[in-house]
Amino acid sequence: MLFDRFSCFLMDCLPLFRWEWIELTLGSTENIIVGSEVWVEDPQLAWLDGKVSKITGQDAEIETSNGKKVTAKLSKIYPKDMEAPAGGVDDMTKLSYLHEPGVLENLKTRYELNEIYTYTGNILIAINPFQRLPHLYDGHMMQQYKGAPFGELSPHVFAVADVAYRAMINERKSNSILVSGESGAGKTETTKMLMRYLAFLGGRAATEGRTVEQQVLEEVEKYKLGSPKSFHYLNQTNCFELAGVSDAHDYLSTRRAMDIVGISAKEQVSFQRSMLLTAASQAVSYPLSLSQEAIFRVVAAVLHIGNIDFSKGKEVDSSVPKDDQAKFHLNTTAELLMCDPVALEDALCKRVMITPEEVIKRSLDPQSAVTSRDGLAKTIYSRLFDWFHDNFQHVFKMEQEEYTKEQIDWSYIEFVDNQDVLDLLEKGVLEAIRISMAGYPTRRPFFEFINRFGLLAPEALEGSYDEKTVCKKILEKKGLKGFQIGKTKVFLRAGQMAELDARRAEVLNNAAKTIQGRIRTHYARKQFIALRKATIVVQSLWRGRLACKVYERIKREAAARKIQKHIRRYAARTAYKKLHISALLLQTGLRAMVARKEFRFRKRTKAATIIQARWHCHKAASYYKRLQRSAIVTQTGWRCRVARRELRLLKMAARDTGALREAKDKLEKHVEELTWRLQLEKRLRTDLEEAKAQEVVKFQNSLEEMKNKIEEANALIIKEREAAKKAIDDAPPVIKETQVLVEDTKKIDSLTEEVENLKTTLDSEKQRADDTEKKYSEVKEISEERRKKLEETEKKVQQLQESLQRLEEKLTNLESENKVLRQQALSMTPNKYLSGRSRSIMQRAESHIPVDAARASLDMQSPSMNHREPSEVDDKPQKSLNEKQQENQELLIRCVAQHLGFSGNRPIAACIIYKCLLQWRSFEVERTSVFDRIIQTIGHAIETQDNNDVLAYWLSNASTLLLLLQRTLKASGAAGMAPQRRRSSSATLFGRMTQACFFRVIFFQSFRGAPQGVNLSLINGGINGGVDALRQVEAKYPALLFKQQLTAYVEKIYGMIRDNLKKEISPLLGLCIQAPRTSRASLVKGARSVANAAAQQALIAHWQGIVKSLGSFLNTLKSNHVPPFLVRKVFTQIFSFINVQLFNSLLLRRECCSFSNGEYVKAGLAELEHWCYKATDEYAGSAWDELKHIRQAIGFLVIHQKPKKTLDEISHDLCPVLSIQQLYRISTMYWDDKYGTHSVSTDVISNMRVLMTEDSNNAVSNSFLLDDDSSIPFSVDDLSKSMEQIDIADIEPPPLIRENSGFSFLLPRCD
C-alpha cells in the first residue's frame, strides 16, 4: 500500500542544538521582578540561567549560575520554571514555559539521563546517543509497545510506528512516518528501527525456508557484490562491522519492512532502457514507481561505479578504464542501470559542450574522469533519495484533537502547508511549538495546578469544592482572562503561567519574610537563654572550686591521723603473729608424728581384710556359674533328643500320600534349620564358656600373683621391722631413731602404693567378670526365647498335621470344586451363600493362617473368582462378563461425574475410583476402557473454564488419585516382586501346606464377594498404614498411560486455575498501575475535601480488590481441599506475575516512577504482605519473596537523601536483585512530586553508564524488563513428596453404588 498520509513526525537531533527560533510574545515584562529566576542569552552556551539582581527601566542585571554578571533587555530574557521535574518532562507540551531555553533545557536534561526520546505533542524528538542501546530495541520492548495507546508508555520510536500502523489497519487509510534531521543525526538507524518494528507487527517473512546466510549470498551473487573492503565507497573509514550488529539481518528486516509498507519485491516498472546521460548533468532518468528490485539495483550500481578506475589513454589528456577489473565494474554498472556500456564509458571519460554552432566533445584526463565518476554516483544516489521524499508526505495536526477532546472553545489555527514543512524541515518541532503558543501553550492537570497555585486562594481549598471549581476560583481571583478549563486540565494563554508564578512568588516572599522574622526572634531568645545559662554555670564552677579547696584541707588532716593509727597497729600485730606462728609449728610437728604411726597401722590391717573377702567371694561365684552352665547344656541336649524323636514320628506319618511327602520335606528342612540354629547356639555357648574359662584362668593367675606379691610384701615388712629394731638398739637414741623412722616410712609408702595397685587390678578383673556374667545372661535369655519359639513351632506343626489330615478327607470334594471354579473364574457376581461344608472348611483354615500369610493372600485374590454352588444359583440366566463389567463401569462413571464432596479432607471421587480400579485389577490388564472413560469424565467436567470451584474440585480429586497411583503402580517385571516369587516356590512341607490353605481360603472368600471378610480387611489394613504402606502393583501399559494422562490433566487444571486468577486480578492491577494521579496526589498530600477522601478510598479499593480476590480464591481452594503444595505454587506464580507487571510499569511509565507513587505502591504491597501473613506459610509459602524486584524498587523510590547514596550501597544494600540497567532506568526516570528532591548523584549515574558499557555485549544484561513465567513449576515426584498420607479405609460410598452388590467391597470394614 502506498502511504500518502502522515500520522506522526519523528526528528533526530544532534546533542549540540542549533535552532532558528521564532520570536514569541510570552506576556508582560512586569512578571519579571528582582529575585526572579530567568534565562539569558549567551554567545557560547546559547542560554544561561541566573537570578535578576537589579532592574533599570527596560534593562535587567542578572547574576548567572557560572558567577558572571550580564545586562540584558527584559524582552530578551525568559522566566525559568523552578518547579520543573529534575528529570525533565516526556512531553514538552507539559512545560510551564514553552520557550526556546525551556525546550533546550528539557532535552538536555533528558539526554544526560540517557532518555533520547521526547514527545512534543504527536511529534517525537530523538537525540542521537552515539552509542548502541540494544535494550531499548529488543523483542521484549517491542512486545510492550505493541497495541499500547500513544503516550501511555515512555516516548519511543516504536510508539510512533505503532500508532501509524494501527491507524492504517483500523481506518483503512494510508499513513506515513517522516524522519528528518541533520547529517549524522541518526536518521538511517531510526528508519531501521521503524522498519524492524513494522516487520514485527506485520509478522510476514518471505524467507521461503532459506537461512539468512543463504538469502544474503543469493543477493550478493545477483548484484555481483563482494566484501565491503573491496568497494571504494565503503572502505574509506576502515570500519566494516559493529559489535552486536548483523548487516545480514538488518538487510532482510529492511526488505520485510518494504513488503509491509507497500514496496513490492518484484519489479513493477523497469528502468528506461535509454538513460539520459548528458555531460552537463550526468543524470539518470527513471520512473517514480520503483520496486525493491529497482532500488537495490541502483544502490549496487553506485557501489560498482565507485570501483571504475581510470588510466591515461593514447591521446593527450584522455582516459580509459584502467584494467579488466575496472571494465568489469563498468559493464556491471551498465547492466544494472540497463544502459549501453559504451555510452556510459563516453559519459565518464568525455565532456560534452553544446554551442550554437556545434556540439563539442572533449576528452578528460584520469583525474577529471574520477571526478565525473563520483558526480554521477552522487547524482544517482541523490535522485533515489529524492524519490523517497517525494513519495512520503506528512499531514500536520496536533492541537485541534486535544482541544476537541477537552471540549475547549477555540477557532482553527492556520498551519504551515505540508510542502512548506518539507521545505523547512529544520523548523518540522519549532512550528509545533509556534502553533501551541498561538493557542493555549500551557496546560496543567487540575491536581498539579492546585498543588502549585493553591496558596493564591487558600479559602477555595478549605471549602468542599471539586478540583475544577477550585481552579476556576483561583484564576478568577487573580483576574486572568482568556483561559479555558477542560474536563481534566487548565488551559492558559501565553504569559499567564508567568503571571501566576509572579503572584505566587509574591506570596512566597511575604511568607518567607514572616518566617525570617520568627526565626530571628527565635535566634535572639535562644542566644539570651544560652548567655544566662553560661553565667550561672561560671558562678557554680567558682563556688565549687572554693568548696573543693576547703574540703581538701580537712581531708588531709583526717588522713594524717588515720595513717598514724594504722602504723602503730601494724607494728603490734606483726610481733604477735611471729609468736603465734612459732607455737603452732611446734604443736603441729608433734601431732603429725603420732598421727602418721596410727594411720599406717590401720591402713595395712584394712587392706589385708579386703583382699581375703574378695578372694572368698570370687571362689564361690565361679563354682555357681560352672554348675549353672552344666545344667543348661544338659537340658538343651535332652530337648534336642525329644525333638528328633518327634521328627522321626512325623516322617513315618507323612509317607502315605504325596502331599505328606512334600510336607515331610518342608518340615525336615524346617527342623534342619532349627537344628542348625541349635548347633549354632551350642557353638556360641561353647565359645562363650571357653572364653569365660580363659578369663577365669587369667583371673586366677592374676590372683595368685597378687597373693605372692602380698606375701613378699609382708615378709619384706617383717624384715624391715627387724632391721629397724636392730638399728634402734645399736644406734644413739635420738639421731638413729630419726633415720630409721624415715627409711621405714619410705618403704612402707612404697609397699602401700603397690598394694593399692593390686587392689586396682583386682577391681578391674572383677569388672571384667561382671561384664562376662552380663553377656552370659543375655545369651541365656536369647536361648530361652529360641527355645520357646521352637516349642511354639512344634505346636504349630502338630496343628498343621491335624489340619492336613482333615484336608485329606475333603481332597476329593476340593478337586471337584476346583473344576467348577475354573469354569467360573472370571465371574463378577458375588454369592452371599455358602454350603455348610465349605464354610466349616474355610473357618478351620482361617484359624490356622498366620498374619503374614494372610497378607500374602492379598496378591492372589480376585473378584473374578466368585463362585456359587449349583444348588444356590438363581433361576435367571447369569449375565456375561463383559456386560457385567460394562454395567459396573457405567455406574462408577455416573457416580463420579456427580459432585461427591469430601470425607474430611479426602476427595470421595478419587478414593472410590482408586478402590474400584484396585479391586477390579484394572492396573494389571492389557486392555481396558475404564481409564479412557475416567479421563473423558474429567475432561467434560472442566470444560467450563471460568468456574473456579469446579476446577478446584477436580484438581483436588486428580492430584489425590495421581498420588495414590504414584505410590501404587510400578513398571511390569520390577525386581520388587522377586522375593515373593522365591518364597512362593518353596518346597518345604510347612510352606506347601500354608500355600494350599491360602489358596482354598481365597476361593471361599471370593464365593461371598468378601464384603467384610479377610480380603477387604487386608486392603483396608494396608491403606490404613499410610501411603507408604500401599501395596505396589505391576502396572501394564494402559495403567501407565492413564497415569500420564492424569498428570497432564493435573497440570492443565492447575494452569487454568492460575490463569483465571491472573485474569481476575489483571484489571485491578491495571487500575493500580494507571491510578488517577489526582487521587494519588490526594493520597500523598492529604485530604482537603470530601471528594479527595472519596478518591483516597477508591484508590485503596484497587489493592483491597486484589486482596479480596486472592482471599476468595484461597477459600475456594481450601474448601475443595486442594493440596497446600499446589496452593503455594499457584500464589507463588501469581505474586511473580504481580511483581512483573508492577516492575515493568515502573520502568516504562515515568509517572509511575515518582515518590508519591512509591508510597502508594508501598501501601498496596503492605496489603499483600498482610494477606500473606493471614494466609500463613502453609498456603502462601514463598509468595511474598516473589515481589522482591518491586519491593526493592519501591524501597529505592521512597528512601530519602538519594544523592548521598553510593553505587555500592544501592546495588548491594538497597537493591541487590536489580541489575545495573534496571537501577539506571529507575534512577534516571525518578522524579519527586512530593518534596522536590533529586535522584542519585551524577557520579553514581556515570558509574552506572560505565558498567552498562562494559556489559553492552551481554544480551541478557541489556534487557531490563522482567518476563512472566507461565510454566508448570512442579513434577509428579514433587507433588508426591509434599502430600501427606491418605487413609481411604473408612470412605463411605455414595448412595448410587452403596446398595449395588457389585460394589460391596467399598463398604467400610466392621470390627
Tell me what you see in this structure:
The protein is α+β, with helices and mostly antiparallel strands. It is 62% helix and 7% strand. The chain contains 41 helices and 20 strands. Strand 12 and strand 13 form a beta hairpin. The radius of gyration is 54 Å and the shape is extended.
Distance between the termini: 85 Å
* Number of helices, where a helix is a run of at least 4 consecutive DSSP H or I residues: 41
Beta percentage is 5-15%
- Whole-number radius of gyration? 54 Å
Helical/strand content category: alpha+beta
Break the fold down into its secondary structure elements and pairings.
Elements: E1 6-13, E2 37-42, E3 46-56, E4 59-64, E5 69-73, E6 78-79, H1 100-112, E7 117-120, E8 123-127, H2 139-145, H3 157-171, E9 176-180, H4 187-202, H5 212-222, H6 247-261, H7 292-306, E10 310-312, E11 319-321, H8 324-337, H9 341-349, E12 350-354, E13 359-363, H10 366-391, H11 399-405, H12 418-423, H13 430-438, E14 442-445, H14 446-453, H15 458-462, H16 467-477, E15 484-485, E16 489-492, H17 496-653, H18 658-730, H19 733-809, H20 811-823, H21 836-846, H22 851-857, H23 881-896, E17 902-903, E18 906-907, H24 908-919, H25 930-941, H26 948-968, E19 969-971, H27 978-984, H28 989-1008, H29 1014-1024, E20 1033-1035, H30 1037-1073, H31 1077-1085, H32 1090-1119, H33 1124-1148, H34 1155-1180, H35 1188-1198, H36 1207-1214, H37 1220-1229, H38 1242-1254, H39 1259-1262, H40 1276-1282, H41 1295-1298
Parallel strand pairs: 1-8, 1-9, 19-20
Antiparallel strand pairs: 2-3, 2-6, 3-4, 4-5, 7-8, 10-11, 12-13, 14-16, 15-16, 17-18
Helix pairs in contact: 3-4, 4-6, 5-6, 7-8, 7-10, 14-16, 17-18, 17-19, 18-19, 18-28, 21-28, 24-26, 25-30, 26-30, 26-40, 30-32, 30-33, 31-32, 31-34, 32-34, 33-34, 33-35, 34-35, 37-38
